UniProtKB/TrEMBL annotation:
Homodimer. PANTHER family: LEXA REPRESSOR, LEXA REPRESSOR-RELATED. This is LexA repressor. GO terms for molecular function: DNA binding; serine-type endopeptidase activity. The active site is at S133, K171. GO terms for biological process: DNA repair; DNA replication; negative regulation of DNA-templated transcription; proteolysis; SOS response.
């Protein structure tokens, strides 16, 4: 299956569960199931899944969202479908994130043991950090960050964001009605200044793990 963002994986998993019940949900039903406030961002995920061949093209405004026939045959709990089906002691390592580049998704997400204290109440996943842009916040190259899947964040939180639908980065967020600033924790990287429409929050940092070489 083609690499998907964490949010696209969540949408695909929900659609597969609806399909298993013989139901094609509306956009509103899907948003309610996923706990999403923004119908616009959900519609973007559906369009991306449609372009990738996972979802059938829409046929009228009031028709339900239907999976492609070959996707219907795939089990919901396969590794490509998202974090919801993982065991209570593990989270999926979905990929690697580096400043200014798309998330390098893993074809088969690996299970990672994550202590309960490093998780949040919501759905979580793990990313491996590449680069030094957050080093002064104690986030180093090779670290594993635990991310709570969310589409909103408070000022000062460290977030995974998608910029212009293409580039993903891990930065500290500062939001106003007119603009969004993404701050690195390394003086070598200046803040990124964006308008809210350019940015999609994909999750918030809730934990960090590090492996030391012997």
């Amino acid at each position: 299956m083609e690499a998907l963002t964490p949010h696209q994986r969540r949408v695909l998993e929900a659609l597969q569960r609806f399909a298993a019940e013989g139901h094609a949900p509306s956009l509103d039903e899907l948003a309610e199931t996923l706990g999403l406030r923004s119908r616009g961002s959900l519609h973007k995920h559906i369009r991306a899944l449609e372009a990738a061949g996972y979802v059938k093209p829409a046929q009228g405004r009031h028709r339900g969202i239907r999976l492609a026939d070959d996707v219907l045959d795939s089990p919901v709990d396969e590794g490509t479908t998202g974090p919801g089906s993982w065991g209570s002691g593990t989270l999926p390592l979905l990929g690697r994130i580096a400043a200014g580049q798309p998330i390098e998704a893993l074809a088969n997400p690996e299970p990672v043991e994550v202590p309960p204290a490093l998780r949040a109440r919501g759905e979580c996943y793990v990313l491996e950090v590449k680069g030094d842009s957050m080093q002064d916040a104690g986030i180093l190259d090779g670290d594993w960050v635990v991310i709570e899947s969310r589409s909103h964040a408070r000022n000062g939180e460290i977030v995974v964001t998608l910029i212009d639908g293409e580039e993903a980065t891990l930065k500290r967020i500062e939001q106003t009605p007119e603009q969004v600033l993404l701050h690195a924790a390394n003086p070598a990287y200046p803040p990124l200044t964006l308008v809210p429409e350019q940015l999609q929050i994909q999750g918030v940092l809730v934990g960090l793990m590090r492996r030391y070489s012997a």
